[in-house]
Amino acid sequence: MVTQSGSPLRGAIVLITGGSRGIGRLYAHRLAAEGAVVVLVARSAVELEDVARSIRAEGGKVATYVVDVTSRAAVARVVGRIEKRLGPLDVLINNAGIRGPIGNAWECDWDAWWRAIEVNLGGAVAFSHTVIPGMARRRKGRVVNIVSEAGVFRWPTVSAYSVSKAALIKFSENLAAECRDFSLTVFAYHPGFLPLGLASEALDLQASTTPSEARVAAWCRAQLESGNAASPTASADKLILLLSGAYDILSGRYVTVHDDLDVLAERVGQVAASKDYRMLRTSA
Amino acid sequence: MNVTKPSPTTESSLLSRGSIVLITCGGRGVGRLFARRLAAEGATVVLLARSSAELDEVAGGIEADGGRVRTFVVDVTNVIVVRDTVATIERDVGPIDALINNAGIFGPIGNTWECGWYDWWKTIEVNLGGAVALSQAVIPHMASRRRGRIVNVTSQAGAFRWPTVSAYSVSKAALIKLSENLAIECKASSVKVFAYHPGLLALGMTLQGAAKAETTEPASAKVGAWCRTQLASDVLASEDEAATKLVQLLSGSYDTLTGRYMTVWDDLDELVERIHNATAAEFNDYLTLRPQA
In the predicted model, what is the mean pLDDT of residues A32-38? Predict the structure, then answer.
Protein backbone atom coordinates (compact mmCIF):
# COMPACT_ATOMS: atom_id res chain seq x y z
CA MET A 1 0.00 0.00 0.00
CA VAL A 2 1.48 3.33 -1.10
CA THR A 3 1.28 6.32 1.21
CA GLN A 4 -0.60 9.15 -0.47
CA SER A 5 1.85 12.00 0.06
CA GLY A 6 -0.66 14.59 -1.06
CA SER A 7 -3.42 13.30 1.18
CA PRO A 8 -5.09 15.89 3.44
CA LEU A 9 -5.04 13.23 6.12
CA ARG A 10 -1.28 13.06 6.27
CA GLY A 11 -0.22 13.60 9.85
CA ALA A 12 -3.82 13.86 11.03
CA ILE A 13 -4.51 12.15 14.34
CA VAL A 14 -7.49 9.86 13.85
CA LEU A 15 -9.15 7.95 16.69
CA ILE A 16 -11.12 4.84 15.76
CA THR A 17 -13.21 3.07 18.39
CA GLY A 18 -13.68 -0.65 17.91
CA GLY A 19 -10.52 -0.44 15.85
CA SER A 20 -9.19 -3.92 16.43
CA ARG A 21 -11.38 -5.84 14.01
CA GLY A 22 -13.92 -5.74 11.24
CA ILE A 23 -14.66 -2.38 9.71
CA GLY A 24 -12.58 -0.52 12.30
CA ARG A 25 -9.55 -2.54 11.32
CA LEU A 26 -10.23 -2.00 7.62
CA TYR A 27 -10.41 1.77 8.08
CA ALA A 28 -7.34 1.75 10.34
CA HIS A 29 -5.23 0.24 7.57
CA ARG A 30 -6.57 2.64 4.97
CA LEU A 31 -6.12 5.74 7.10
CA ALA A 32 -2.59 4.67 8.02
CA ALA A 33 -1.89 4.28 4.31
CA GLU A 34 -3.12 7.86 3.84
CA GLY A 35 -0.43 8.95 6.27
CA ALA A 36 -2.64 9.54 9.28
CA VAL A 37 -1.55 8.71 12.80
CA VAL A 38 -4.13 6.10 13.67
CA VAL A 39 -5.17 5.66 17.29
CA LEU A 40 -7.15 2.50 17.94
CA VAL A 41 -9.21 1.74 21.02
CA ALA A 42 -10.92 -1.55 21.76
CA ARG A 43 -11.38 -4.00 24.60
CA SER A 44 -8.82 -6.60 23.55
CA ALA A 45 -5.13 -5.80 23.94
CA VAL A 46 -4.23 -8.92 21.97
CA GLU A 47 -6.36 -7.96 18.98
CA LEU A 48 -5.12 -4.38 19.11
CA GLU A 49 -1.49 -5.52 19.08
CA ASP A 50 -2.22 -7.75 16.11
CA VAL A 51 -3.65 -4.86 14.05
CA ALA A 52 -0.86 -2.53 15.15
CA ARG A 53 1.75 -5.01 14.06
CA SER A 54 0.24 -5.40 10.59
CA ILE A 55 -0.11 -1.63 10.14
CA ARG A 56 3.48 -1.01 11.18
CA ALA A 57 4.61 -3.74 8.78
CA GLU A 58 3.08 -1.58 6.06
CA GLY A 59 4.93 1.49 7.27
CA GLY A 60 1.98 3.06 9.01
CA LYS A 61 1.87 4.99 12.30
CA VAL A 62 -0.41 3.57 14.95
CA ALA A 63 -1.02 3.68 18.71
CA THR A 64 -3.40 1.45 20.66
CA TYR A 65 -5.30 1.76 23.91
CA VAL A 66 -7.59 -0.62 25.75
CA VAL A 67 -10.90 0.85 26.87
CA ASP A 68 -14.52 -0.14 27.45
CA VAL A 69 -16.52 2.54 25.64
CA THR A 70 -19.40 2.17 28.09
CA SER A 71 -17.38 3.57 30.96
CA ARG A 72 -17.59 7.35 30.74
CA ALA A 73 -14.72 7.73 33.19
CA ALA A 74 -12.47 5.34 31.27
CA VAL A 75 -13.26 7.18 28.04
CA ALA A 76 -12.24 10.50 29.64
CA ARG A 77 -9.03 8.98 30.93
CA VAL A 78 -8.00 7.41 27.64
CA VAL A 79 -8.72 10.53 25.57
CA GLY A 80 -6.70 12.54 28.06
CA ARG A 81 -3.76 10.16 27.72
CA ILE A 82 -3.98 10.11 23.92
CA GLU A 83 -4.04 13.88 23.51
CA LYS A 84 -1.26 14.32 26.05
CA ARG A 85 0.98 11.82 24.32
CA LEU A 86 0.14 12.34 20.65
CA GLY A 87 -1.60 15.69 20.39
CA PRO A 88 -5.09 16.99 19.67
CA LEU A 89 -7.45 14.69 17.78
CA ASP A 90 -8.38 15.74 14.26
CA VAL A 91 -10.87 12.99 13.54
CA LEU A 92 -13.09 10.78 15.70
CA ILE A 93 -14.59 7.67 14.12
CA ASN A 94 -17.23 6.17 16.38
CA ASN A 95 -17.22 2.63 15.08
CA ALA A 96 -17.45 0.48 18.21
CA GLY A 97 -20.62 -1.51 17.95
CA ILE A 98 -22.21 -4.82 18.80
CA ARG A 99 -25.04 -6.68 17.16
CA GLY A 100 -27.12 -7.13 20.27
CA PRO A 101 -29.49 -10.03 20.87
CA ILE A 102 -31.58 -11.60 18.13
CA GLY A 103 -35.21 -12.40 18.77
CA ASN A 104 -38.45 -10.66 19.61
CA ALA A 105 -37.60 -7.73 21.88
CA TRP A 106 -39.70 -9.04 24.75
CA GLU A 107 -38.02 -12.43 24.53
CA CYS A 108 -34.52 -10.96 24.70
CA ASP A 109 -32.61 -10.63 27.92
CA TRP A 110 -32.92 -7.02 29.14
CA ASP A 111 -29.22 -6.67 29.90
CA ALA A 112 -28.19 -7.96 26.48
CA TRP A 113 -30.70 -5.63 24.76
CA TRP A 114 -29.68 -2.56 26.73
CA ARG A 115 -25.98 -3.30 26.34
CA ALA A 116 -26.32 -2.77 22.58
CA ILE A 117 -27.74 0.71 23.29
CA GLU A 118 -24.97 1.44 25.78
CA VAL A 119 -22.20 0.41 23.39
CA ASN A 120 -23.58 1.55 20.03
CA LEU A 121 -25.14 4.82 21.18
CA GLY A 122 -23.60 5.45 24.60
CA GLY A 123 -20.04 4.78 23.48
CA ALA A 124 -20.34 7.17 20.56
CA VAL A 125 -21.91 9.89 22.69
CA ALA A 126 -19.31 9.41 25.44
CA PHE A 127 -16.43 9.83 23.01
CA SER A 128 -18.10 12.79 21.32
CA HIS A 129 -18.78 14.35 24.72
CA THR A 130 -15.10 13.98 25.61
CA VAL A 131 -13.45 14.87 22.32
CA ILE A 132 -15.55 17.74 20.98
CA PRO A 133 -14.70 20.39 23.61
CA GLY A 134 -11.10 20.36 22.35
CA MET A 135 -12.15 20.28 18.70
CA ALA A 136 -14.55 23.19 19.33
CA ARG A 137 -11.83 25.25 21.01
CA ARG A 138 -9.55 24.63 18.02
CA ARG A 139 -12.49 25.12 15.61
CA LYS A 140 -11.20 22.08 13.77
CA GLY A 141 -12.39 18.49 13.69
CA ARG A 142 -14.58 15.83 12.11
CA VAL A 143 -16.69 13.11 13.62
CA VAL A 144 -17.92 10.09 11.67
CA ASN A 145 -20.49 7.88 13.35
CA ILE A 146 -20.62 4.43 11.78
CA VAL A 147 -24.28 3.59 11.45
CA SER A 148 -26.36 1.15 9.43
CA GLU A 149 -29.38 1.09 7.20
CA ALA A 150 -30.87 -0.86 10.10
CA GLY A 151 -31.32 2.54 11.67
CA VAL A 152 -33.15 3.97 8.69
CA PHE A 153 -35.38 1.01 7.96
CA ARG A 154 -36.11 -1.57 10.61
CA TRP A 155 -34.79 -4.98 11.51
CA PRO A 156 -37.40 -6.90 13.45
CA THR A 157 -35.75 -9.44 15.78
CA VAL A 158 -32.58 -7.33 15.71
CA SER A 159 -34.32 -4.41 17.39
CA ALA A 160 -31.62 -3.28 19.84
CA TYR A 161 -29.22 -2.86 16.92
CA SER A 162 -31.79 -1.07 14.74
CA VAL A 163 -32.87 1.26 17.53
CA SER A 164 -29.28 2.05 18.53
CA LYS A 165 -28.38 2.96 14.95
CA ALA A 166 -31.51 5.08 14.49
CA ALA A 167 -30.55 6.88 17.67
CA LEU A 168 -26.98 7.36 16.41
CA ILE A 169 -28.26 8.84 13.16
CA LYS A 170 -30.49 11.28 15.05
CA PHE A 171 -27.57 12.07 17.35
CA SER A 172 -25.45 12.90 14.30
CA GLU A 173 -28.13 15.27 12.99
CA ASN A 174 -28.39 17.12 16.28
CA LEU A 175 -24.66 17.17 16.93
CA ALA A 176 -23.90 18.51 13.46
CA ALA A 177 -26.30 21.42 13.97
CA GLU A 178 -24.72 22.19 17.35
CA CYS A 179 -21.23 21.93 15.86
CA ARG A 180 -21.85 24.23 12.93
CA ASP A 181 -20.86 27.38 14.78
CA PHE A 182 -17.56 25.76 15.68
CA SER A 183 -16.68 24.69 12.13
CA LEU A 184 -16.85 21.01 13.04
CA THR A 185 -18.54 18.44 10.83
CA VAL A 186 -20.39 15.27 11.77
CA PHE A 187 -21.43 12.46 9.45
CA ALA A 188 -23.54 9.35 9.93
CA TYR A 189 -21.95 6.82 7.59
CA HIS A 190 -23.32 3.44 6.58
CA PRO A 191 -20.27 1.50 5.36
CA GLY A 192 -22.35 -0.97 3.37
CA PHE A 193 -22.80 -4.66 3.81
CA LEU A 194 -19.25 -5.96 4.04
CA PRO A 195 -17.87 -9.50 4.29
CA LEU A 196 -16.25 -8.68 7.62
CA GLY A 197 -17.13 -7.55 11.11
CA LEU A 198 -20.68 -8.01 12.40
CA ALA A 199 -22.08 -9.25 9.10
CA SER A 200 -19.57 -12.06 8.80
CA GLU A 201 -19.97 -12.89 12.48
CA ALA A 202 -23.68 -13.27 11.85
CA LEU A 203 -22.96 -16.01 9.32
CA ASP A 204 -21.78 -18.14 12.23
CA LEU A 205 -25.42 -18.32 13.28
CA GLN A 206 -26.44 -20.25 10.20
CA ALA A 207 -26.38 -23.50 12.10
CA SER A 208 -28.36 -22.07 15.00
CA THR A 209 -31.36 -24.02 16.20
CA THR A 210 -33.06 -20.76 17.12
CA PRO A 211 -35.28 -19.85 14.15
CA SER A 212 -34.79 -16.08 14.35
CA GLU A 213 -31.01 -16.44 14.54
CA ALA A 214 -30.91 -18.80 11.60
CA ARG A 215 -33.16 -16.42 9.65
CA VAL A 216 -30.93 -13.42 10.32
CA ALA A 217 -27.87 -15.45 9.30
CA ALA A 218 -29.56 -16.51 6.08
CA TRP A 219 -30.56 -12.94 5.35
CA CYS A 220 -26.99 -11.71 5.93
CA ARG A 221 -25.69 -14.38 3.63
CA ALA A 222 -28.17 -13.37 0.95
CA GLN A 223 -27.09 -9.74 1.28
CA LEU A 224 -23.43 -10.60 0.97
CA GLU A 225 -24.03 -12.71 -2.11
CA SER A 226 -26.26 -10.15 -3.77
CA GLY A 227 -25.74 -6.83 -5.47
CA ASN A 228 -26.26 -5.18 -2.10
CA ALA A 229 -22.83 -6.13 -0.89
CA ALA A 230 -20.18 -3.44 -0.91
CA SER A 231 -16.47 -3.84 -1.43
CA PRO A 232 -14.20 -3.01 1.50
CA THR A 233 -12.13 -0.77 -0.76
CA ALA A 234 -15.16 1.21 -1.89
CA SER A 235 -16.26 1.54 1.73
CA ALA A 236 -12.90 2.94 2.78
CA ASP A 237 -12.69 5.18 -0.30
CA LYS A 238 -15.96 6.87 0.63
CA LEU A 239 -14.81 7.42 4.20
CA ILE A 240 -11.66 9.11 2.91
CA LEU A 241 -13.81 11.36 0.72
CA LEU A 242 -15.94 12.36 3.70
CA LEU A 243 -12.83 13.19 5.68
CA SER A 244 -11.26 15.16 2.82
CA GLY A 245 -13.22 18.30 3.56
CA ALA A 246 -14.69 18.40 0.06
CA TYR A 247 -18.13 17.28 1.31
CA ASP A 248 -18.55 19.22 4.52
CA ILE A 249 -21.88 20.47 3.18
CA LEU A 250 -23.17 16.98 3.97
CA SER A 251 -22.52 17.45 7.68
CA GLY A 252 -25.41 16.03 9.72
CA ARG A 253 -26.48 13.72 6.93
CA TYR A 254 -26.81 9.98 6.70
CA VAL A 255 -24.51 8.88 3.88
CA THR A 256 -23.94 5.38 2.54
CA VAL A 257 -21.16 3.67 0.60
CA HIS A 258 -23.49 3.53 -2.40
CA ASP A 259 -24.06 7.27 -2.56
CA ASP A 260 -22.57 9.59 -5.15
CA LEU A 261 -21.43 12.41 -2.84
CA ASP A 262 -21.48 15.02 -5.61
CA VAL A 263 -25.12 14.24 -6.36
CA LEU A 264 -25.98 14.42 -2.64
CA ALA A 265 -24.19 17.72 -2.24
CA GLU A 266 -26.17 19.17 -5.12
CA ARG A 267 -29.46 17.97 -3.64
CA VAL A 268 -28.76 19.41 -0.21
CA GLY A 269 -29.83 22.81 -1.33
CA GLN A 270 -33.10 21.44 -2.67
CA VAL A 271 -33.95 19.20 0.23
CA ALA A 272 -33.10 21.71 2.95
CA ALA A 273 -36.40 23.45 2.38
CA SER A 274 -38.31 20.19 2.60
CA LYS A 275 -39.72 19.16 5.90
CA ASP A 276 -40.57 15.77 4.60
CA TYR A 277 -39.38 13.02 6.89
CA ARG A 278 -41.07 9.82 6.28
CA MET A 279 -40.15 7.17 8.71
CA LEU A 280 -43.17 5.07 7.99
CA ARG A 281 -45.10 8.36 8.17
CA THR A 282 -47.68 8.62 5.47
CA SER A 283 -48.78 12.04 6.65
CA ALA A 284 -45.83 14.04 5.35
CA MET B 1 -54.97 22.77 34.51
CA ASN B 2 -58.02 20.91 33.30
CA VAL B 3 -60.54 20.81 36.15
CA THR B 4 -63.69 19.98 34.24
CA LYS B 5 -64.63 16.36 33.82
CA PRO B 6 -63.59 15.28 30.34
CA SER B 7 -66.52 14.14 28.25
CA PRO B 8 -66.32 10.78 26.48
CA THR B 9 -66.43 10.66 22.72
CA THR B 10 -69.87 10.96 21.30
CA GLU B 11 -69.32 8.02 19.00
CA SER B 12 -70.13 4.61 20.34
CA SER B 13 -67.88 3.73 23.25
CA LEU B 14 -64.51 3.30 21.67
CA LEU B 15 -63.04 1.47 24.57
CA SER B 16 -65.09 -1.39 25.82
CA ARG B 17 -66.13 -0.80 29.40
CA GLY B 18 -63.66 -2.34 31.74
CA SER B 19 -60.65 -2.15 29.44
CA ILE B 20 -57.53 -1.95 31.51
CA VAL B 21 -55.10 0.71 30.38
CA LEU B 22 -51.67 1.10 31.93
CA ILE B 23 -50.19 4.61 31.75
CA THR B 24 -46.65 5.46 32.84
CA CYS B 25 -46.03 8.85 34.39
CA GLY B 26 -49.75 9.12 34.85
CA GLY B 27 -49.53 11.62 37.66
CA ARG B 28 -49.02 14.79 35.66
CA GLY B 29 -49.01 16.53 32.32
CA VAL B 30 -49.99 14.51 29.30
CA GLY B 31 -50.23 11.26 31.30
CA ARG B 32 -52.74 12.81 33.63
CA LEU B 33 -54.72 14.20 30.69
CA PHE B 34 -54.89 10.76 29.11
CA ALA B 35 -55.74 9.09 32.42
CA ARG B 36 -58.72 11.32 33.04
CA ARG B 37 -60.01 10.97 29.48
CA LEU B 38 -59.64 7.19 29.32
CA ALA B 39 -61.32 6.84 32.71
CA ALA B 40 -64.20 8.94 31.41
CA GLU B 41 -64.38 6.54 28.46
CA GLY B 42 -64.97 3.70 30.88
CA ALA B 43 -61.52 2.21 31.08
CA THR B 44 -59.91 1.17 34.31
CA VAL B 45 -56.74 3.20 34.27
CA VAL B 46 -53.69 1.93 36.06
CA LEU B 47 -51.21 4.70 36.70
CA LEU B 48 -47.50 4.31 37.31
CA ALA B 49 -45.34 7.19 38.50
CA ARG B 50 -42.61 8.03 40.97
CA SER B 51 -44.66 10.43 43.06
CA SER B 52 -47.36 8.96 45.26
CA ALA B 53 -48.64 12.45 46.04
CA GLU B 54 -49.28 13.18 42.38
CA LEU B 55 -50.82 9.76 41.84
CA ASP B 56 -53.16 10.22 44.80
CA GLU B 57 -54.29 13.59 43.47
CA VAL B 58 -55.06 12.29 39.98
CA ALA B 59 -56.72 9.15 41.34
CA GLY B 60 -58.86 11.22 43.69
CA GLY B 61 -60.07 13.36 40.82
CA ILE B 62 -60.87 10.35 38.64
CA GLU B 63 -62.76 8.57 41.38
CA ALA B 64 -64.71 11.71 42.23
CA ASP B 65 -65.86 11.71 38.62
CA GLY B 66 -66.97 8.10 38.89
CA GLY B 67 -64.00 6.56 37.12
CA ARG B 68 -61.96 3.49 38.00
CA VAL B 69 -58.29 3.87 38.78
CA ARG B 70 -55.41 2.05 40.43
CA THR B 71 -51.99 3.46 41.16
CA PHE B 72 -48.50 2.06 41.69
CA VAL B 73 -45.35 3.94 42.65
CA VAL B 74 -42.73 2.82 40.16
CA ASP B 75 -39.49 4.11 38.68
CA VAL B 76 -39.61 2.86 35.08
CA THR B 77 -35.82 2.54 34.97
CA ASN B 78 -35.95 -0.20 37.59
CA VAL B 79 -36.47 -3.24 35.41
CA ILE B 80 -37.13 -5.66 38.27
CA VAL B 81 -39.75 -3.45 39.89
CA VAL B 82 -41.39 -2.87 36.51
CA ARG B 83 -41.62 -6.61 35.88
CA ASP B 84 -43.01 -7.33 39.35
CA THR B 85 -45.53 -4.50 39.15
CA VAL B 86 -46.85 -5.70 35.81
CA ALA B 87 -47.21 -9.21 37.21
CA THR B 88 -49.10 -7.79 40.18
CA ILE B 89 -51.40 -5.78 37.92
CA GLU B 90 -52.18 -8.79 35.75
CA ARG B 91 -52.90 -10.84 38.84
CA ASP B 92 -54.80 -8.34 40.98
CA VAL B 93 -56.37 -5.90 38.53
CA GLY B 94 -56.80 -7.89 35.35
CA PRO B 95 -55.47 -8.37 31.82
CA ILE B 96 -53.77 -5.27 30.45
CA ASP B 97 -55.50 -4.25 27.22
CA ALA B 98 -53.39 -1.19 26.47
CA LEU B 99 -50.05 0.24 27.53
CA ILE B 100 -49.29 3.94 27.16
CA ASN B 101 -45.54 4.47 27.42
CA ASN B 102 -45.65 8.11 28.38
CA ALA B 103 -42.92 8.43 31.01
CA GLY B 104 -40.33 10.86 29.80
CA ILE B 105 -38.05 13.64 30.90
CA PHE B 106 -36.88 16.68 29.00
CA GLY B 107 -33.21 16.17 29.66
CA PRO B 108 -30.46 18.78 29.70
CA ILE B 109 -30.41 21.83 27.44
CA GLY B 110 -27.21 22.95 25.74
CA ASN B 111 -24.63 21.71 23.28
CA THR B 112 -24.23 18.00 23.86
CA TRP B 113 -20.62 18.25 24.93
CA GLU B 114 -21.49 20.98 27.44
CA CYS B 115 -24.28 19.01 29.09
CA GLY B 116 -23.71 16.93 32.16
CA TRP B 117 -23.07 13.37 30.96
CA TYR B 118 -25.22 11.79 33.65
CA ASP B 119 -28.20 14.05 32.85
CA TRP B 120 -27.84 13.31 29.14
CA TRP B 121 -27.70 9.55 29.51
CA LYS B 122 -30.45 9.48 32.12
CA THR B 123 -32.79 10.93 29.51
CA ILE B 124 -32.13 7.92 27.27
CA GLU B 125 -32.58 5.54 30.20
CA VAL B 126 -35.97 6.98 31.15
CA ASN B 127 -37.43 7.86 27.75
CA LEU B 128 -36.23 4.77 25.86
CA GLY B 129 -35.27 2.33 28.58
CA GLY B 130 -38.49 2.80 30.51
CA ALA B 131 -40.57 2.09 27.42
CA VAL B 132 -38.53 -1.02 26.61
CA ALA B 133 -38.81 -2.31 30.17
CA LEU B 134 -42.58 -1.86 30.20
CA SER B 135 -42.93 -3.40 26.73
CA GLN B 136 -40.84 -6.42 27.72
CA ALA B 137 -43.00 -6.93 30.79
CA VAL B 138 -46.38 -6.39 29.17
CA ILE B 139 -46.11 -7.92 25.69
CA PRO B 140 -45.80 -11.56 26.82
CA HIS B 141 -49.17 -11.21 28.53
CA MET B 142 -50.75 -9.45 25.55
CA ALA B 143 -49.22 -11.98 23.15
CA SER B 144 -50.62 -14.93 25.09
CA ARG B 145 -54.07 -13.40 24.72
CA ARG B 146 -53.40 -12.34 21.11
CA ARG B 147 -54.78 -8.97 22.03
CA GLY B 148 -53.35 -5.60 23.04
CA ARG B 149 -52.21 -2.15 21.98
CA ILE B 150 -49.18 -0.12 22.90
CA VAL B 151 -48.91 3.62 22.35
CA ASN B 152 -45.45 5.10 22.71
CA VAL B 153 -45.74 8.82 23.37
CA THR B 154 -43.03 10.34 21.25
CA SER B 155 -42.39 13.82 19.92
CA GLN B 156 -41.73 15.55 16.66
CA ALA B 157 -38.29 16.17 18.17
CA GLY B 158 -37.65 12.54 17.34
CA ALA B 159 -38.84 12.89 13.76
CA PHE B 160 -36.97 16.13 13.13
CA ARG B 161 -34.20 17.32 15.41
CA TRP B 162 -33.71 19.65 18.35
CA PRO B 163 -30.15 20.90 18.64
CA THR B 164 -29.31 21.78 22.27
CA VAL B 165 -32.06 19.40 23.35
CA SER B 166 -30.29 16.42 21.82
CA ALA B 167 -30.85 13.78 24.52
CA TYR B 168 -34.60 14.31 24.26
CA SER B 169 -34.57 14.28 20.45
CA VAL B 170 -32.40 11.16 20.28
CA SER B 171 -34.50 9.32 22.86
CA LYS B 172 -37.70 10.09 20.95
CA ALA B 173 -36.18 9.04 17.62
CA ALA B 174 -35.16 5.79 19.27
CA LEU B 175 -38.70 5.36 20.60
CA ILE B 176 -40.14 5.80 17.10
CA LYS B 177 -37.74 3.18 15.70
CA LEU B 178 -38.58 0.87 18.60
CA SER B 179 -42.26 1.20 17.73
CA GLU B 180 -41.56 0.29 14.10
CA ASN B 181 -39.60 -2.82 15.05
CA LEU B 182 -41.98 -3.93 17.78
CA ALA B 183 -45.00 -3.58 15.53
CA ILE B 184 -43.57 -6.06 13.06
CA GLU B 185 -42.43 -8.45 15.76
CA CYS B 186 -45.89 -8.26 17.33
CA LYS B 187 -47.79 -8.96 14.14
CA ALA B 188 -47.97 -12.68 14.75
CA SER B 189 -49.52 -12.04 18.16
CA SER B 190 -52.04 -9.47 16.92
CA VAL B 191 -50.61 -6.80 19.21
CA LYS B 192 -50.49 -3.29 17.78
CA VAL B 193 -47.85 -0.66 18.48
CA PHE B 194 -48.18 3.05 17.69
CA ALA B 195 -45.80 6.01 18.03
CA TYR B 196 -47.87 9.07 18.90
CA HIS B 197 -46.93 12.73 19.15
CA PRO B 198 -49.74 14.43 21.08
CA GLY B 199 -48.69 17.88 19.93
CA LEU B 200 -47.52 20.82 21.95
CA LEU B 201 -49.90 21.20 24.81
CA ALA B 202 -50.23 23.86 27.46
CA LEU B 203 -49.18 21.51 30.20
CA GLY B 204 -46.35 19.33 31.39
CA MET B 205 -43.08 19.69 29.52
CA THR B 206 -44.04 22.60 27.33
CA LEU B 207 -44.94 24.67 30.37
CA GLN B 208 -41.69 23.65 32.04
CA GLY B 209 -39.86 24.67 28.91
CA ALA B 210 -41.63 28.00 28.66
CA ALA B 211 -40.66 28.79 32.24
CA LYS B 212 -37.02 28.71 31.16
CA ALA B 213 -37.49 31.78 28.97
CA GLU B 214 -36.48 33.94 31.92
CA THR B 215 -33.18 32.21 32.64
CA THR B 216 -29.85 33.82 31.89
CA GLU B 217 -28.35 30.69 30.37
CA PRO B 218 -28.61 31.32 26.60
CA ALA B 219 -29.51 27.85 25.34
CA SER B 220 -32.23 27.39 27.97
CA ALA B 221 -33.57 30.87 27.38
CA LYS B 222 -33.78 30.15 23.68
CA VAL B 223 -35.68 26.90 24.23
CA GLY B 224 -37.93 28.71 26.67
CA ALA B 225 -38.67 31.44 24.19
CA TRP B 226 -39.47 28.85 21.54
CA CYS B 227 -41.88 27.05 23.87
CA ARG B 228 -43.58 30.35 24.66
CA THR B 229 -44.02 31.10 20.98
CA GLN B 230 -45.52 27.67 20.40
CA LEU B 231 -47.93 28.14 23.28
CA ALA B 232 -49.14 31.38 21.79
CA SER B 233 -49.47 30.08 18.26
CA ASP B 234 -51.88 28.10 16.10
CA VAL B 235 -49.61 25.14 16.49
CA LEU B 236 -50.82 24.66 20.02
CA ALA B 237 -52.90 21.54 20.18
CA SER B 238 -56.00 21.29 22.31
CA GLU B 239 -56.03 18.79 25.11
CA ASP B 240 -59.30 17.44 23.83
CA GLU B 241 -57.84 16.78 20.38
CA ALA B 242 -54.74 15.12 21.83
CA ALA B 243 -56.82 12.82 24.00
CA THR B 244 -59.39 12.06 21.30
CA LYS B 245 -56.71 10.90 18.90
CA LEU B 246 -55.38 8.55 21.56
CA VAL B 247 -58.87 7.13 22.07
CA GLN B 248 -59.16 6.61 18.33
CA LEU B 249 -55.87 4.72 18.24
CA LEU B 250 -56.99 2.48 21.08
CA SER B 251 -60.39 1.86 19.53
CA GLY B 252 -59.20 -0.75 17.08
CA SER B 253 -60.45 1.20 14.09
CA TYR B 254 -56.95 2.24 13.05
CA ASP B 255 -54.97 -0.92 13.61
CA THR B 256 -53.72 -0.66 10.01
CA LEU B 257 -51.51 2.13 11.30
CA THR B 258 -49.52 -0.16 13.59
CA GLY B 259 -45.82 0.66 13.52
CA ARG B 260 -46.45 4.21 12.35
CA TYR B 261 -45.60 7.58 13.82
CA MET B 262 -48.70 9.75 14.06
CA THR B 263 -49.31 13.22 15.37
CA VAL B 264 -52.34 14.99 16.81
CA TRP B 265 -52.63 16.88 13.53
CA ASP B 266 -53.00 13.78 11.37
CA ASP B 267 -56.31 12.71 9.91
CA LEU B 268 -56.18 9.00 10.72
CA ASP B 269 -58.72 8.07 8.04
CA GLU B 270 -56.60 9.81 5.46
CA LEU B 271 -53.49 7.95 6.63
CA VAL B 272 -55.28 4.62 6.34
CA GLU B 273 -56.41 5.60 2.85
CA ARG B 274 -52.86 6.44 1.83
CA ILE B 275 -51.56 3.14 3.05
CA HIS B 276 -54.11 1.24 1.02
CA ASN B 277 -53.23 3.27 -2.04
CA ALA B 278 -49.47 3.28 -1.60
CA THR B 279 -47.35 1.34 -4.01
CA ALA B 280 -44.77 -1.03 -2.61
CA ALA B 281 -41.99 1.45 -3.38
CA GLU B 282 -43.72 4.31 -1.61
CA PHE B 283 -44.41 2.06 1.32
CA ASN B 284 -40.73 1.64 1.97
CA ASP B 285 -39.75 5.20 1.30
CA TYR B 286 -37.86 6.83 4.14
CA LEU B 287 -36.57 10.34 3.96
CA THR B 288 -34.64 11.01 7.11
CA LEU B 289 -32.53 13.93 6.00
CA ARG B 290 -31.46 11.65 3.16
CA PRO B 291 -31.37 13.65 -0.04
CA GLN B 292 -30.75 10.55 -2.09
CA ALA B 293 -34.11 8.91 -1.51
Answer: 98
